[in-house]
């Protein structure tokens, strides 16, 4: 399956792992005023249709993970931030808000390898992912209030689900910046890694996931998301259906045989 044509990002495919690198270091990987929104959305759509991919890693090139919105455009009230109320509402819905909808629809686990500052919408992008690693140079900030705006990309929805309402409220109402170690202490990231080893660590986790039966990874990802919004009785019905499908796959039989025979399994996605 042909890879998507990306404008401002790089996509590397290796061993069922897709690594998307935001590649606009000239603007600290700002999500607005660039093609990064389109790149993220198109990559996730491609991954969803490519059964050979089991994990997606998102990281940034250069010094920052993502600076979020382009401040110069805000100052000039131009680009994504220009227009009357109705036009700006449409720009948000047709622009930055496509990212949370795309990531929420991802059929594979998404790992954020936060190589540097993740600020505003860049912080929210990291929070939208399933798991996060931070480099020792990473910083995080839900800084919208400092600019007199709100998290228009859905950040207030994600942050309180990650940290609980009280801590999310403190970070959102103060707009303060936290370093990688504080992010680790509060459970925002899985680990803090020296920057030179960040992608290696993210790939180690990705490889563990990618070594599992591909269908089980995708069904489990869908279940994890459904569990956040379904009542238990409805959720259990979905579990039963997905489990019925899983029991009838060749990969399930191979996994069981490999376990009994004490050998490595070889999965074919069937």
Which descriptors would you attach to this protein?
270 residues, 9 strands, Lyase 2-enoyl-coa Hydratase, Chain  A, domain 2, six-stranded mixed sheet, 2 domains, alpha/beta, three-stranded mixed sheet, 2-enoyl-CoA Hydratase, Chain A, domain 1
> Cα-atom Rg, whole angstroms?
19 Å
In percent terms, what proportion of residues is strand?
5-15%
Count the E strands. 9
Shape by Cα distribution? globular
Total domain modules: 2
**Helix and strand run:** EEHEHHHEEHEEHHEHEHHHH
What is the CA-CA span between the terminal residues?
18 Å
The CATH class of the largest domain turns out to be: Alpha Beta
pLDDT < 50 runs, ≥5 residues: none
CATH architecture of the largest domain: Alpha-Beta Complex
Number of helices: 12
* Spatial sequence of strands, sheet with the most strands: 1-2-3-4-6-9
In which range does the helix fraction lie?
Answer: 40-55%
The CATH topology of the largest domain is what?
A: 2-enoyl-CoA Hydratase, Chain A, domain 1
- The fourth-level CATH homologous superfamily of the largest domain is 2-enoyl-CoA Hydratase, Chain A, domain 1
Overview of the molecule:
This protein has 12 helices and 9 strands. 47% of the residues lie in helices and 14% in strands. It has a 6-stranded mixed sheet, with helices on both faces. It has a 3-stranded mixed sheet with strand order 5-7-8. The chain has 2 domains: 202 residues, Alpha-Beta Complex (2-enoyl-CoA Hydratase, Chain A, domain 1); 48 residues, Orthogonal Bundle (Lyase 2-enoyl-coa Hydratase, Chain  A, domain 2), CATH 1.10.12. It has 270 residues and is an alpha/beta fold. The model has no long low-confidence stretch (mean pLDDT 96). Helix 10 packs antiparallel against helix 11.
